[in-house]
Amino acid sequence: MTEDEEEYEDHEVLKKKFENFVKKAEEGDLLSMRLLARIYTESEYFPRDTFAAEAWLRKAAELGDDKAKFQLAKMLSNGNGVAKNLEESFCLYQELMFDCDVDAMMEVGIALKEGKGVPKNEELGSKYIDYAWDIELDLMKDDKKESA
Question: Which domain holds residue 97?
Answer without folding.
Answer: 85-148
